[in-house]
Amino acid sequence: MAGMLMRVLTVILVFTLAGCGDDRPDKIAKYQQLSQQRLDTLSKMLNDGQIRNANLLKQYVQVLEKQKPDLSPLLNELATDATNRGPMFTSLTRRLTDSQNPANYVDLDEQLAEVENLYQAADPSIFNDMLSDPLNVVADMSDGTLARVNSISREAAALANGAEDFGAGSQLVGNPAYGSWQTGSNGMSFWAWYGMYSMFSNLTRGPIGYDRWSSRRNYSYYNDVGRYRYTSPKQARAQTQTYERTKKQFNAQGKKFDSPYAKSRTGSTSLSRQSSSTPKASSTGRTASSKSKFRSNYSKDSSFRNSSSRTTRGVRRGK
């Protein structure tokens, strides 16, 4: 009896010591602090005109407004992404706020992965690359007057990827900052724009269906490079549900359906080193355990400061 009691106490002691050694809460708190610092830096850089693609976005909008004044409301909405009031920046601040509540996550691994992703997403160089999507939307709407940035031409990308032309705003389709996949009365999913972005619907031939878009979409920074960093766990689960539901419908018809992220599309050029090292998300939007995730090289305050100063100069020189 005494031997059995000793074994039970030993097991309890082992689990207690293991629990005491869990450093994930400390890492989460550290990344929350660092992410806030980066967001503050990024906000200041946007306000001071130090993010190259943000400056170009403002300039492109001004040029296109003169060409197509009827699109002014939509263009002005796109221009907000060049500020700290735009959907891309505010989505990061909202996710950081959400990260304070553990109830928003399945477990500590998911919470830790989220704050690591936020820290990377707030990197000024990566955010600059992310802005290539709304910037190239405006470029494509100019009918060739304005050049694309960080991307090959629309025609070259369509040829390389066997892609369909889904019309103006197609680079933003799939990005939860601008819209979401909704289910129609026929059970199929289609893209629904948020707010003023719904004006894109007037510039296309009809609703963009998830099934067609998945197999025929073209390159965009979000969908092919940045999705891992610019998607919250909740948004990733919604993407997975849309995929699983569509796959089930296709399977019922004896057809095969692949995730829109099963393969990356060709099209990026001159991306930052930071973007090039960003890992890809899984094909269905599921997140792996934090042990297999990309680990930040900037886990210390001093490294953060050094990285920030290098990034500022790099963005100013950007191509």
From TrEMBL:
Ranges of biased composition (kind: Low complexity): 264-278, 296-312
Location of region: Disordered: 249-319
UniProt biased composition (Polar residues): 279-291
PROSITE patterns linked: PROKAR_LIPOPROTEIN (PS51257)
Name of the protein: Lipoprotein
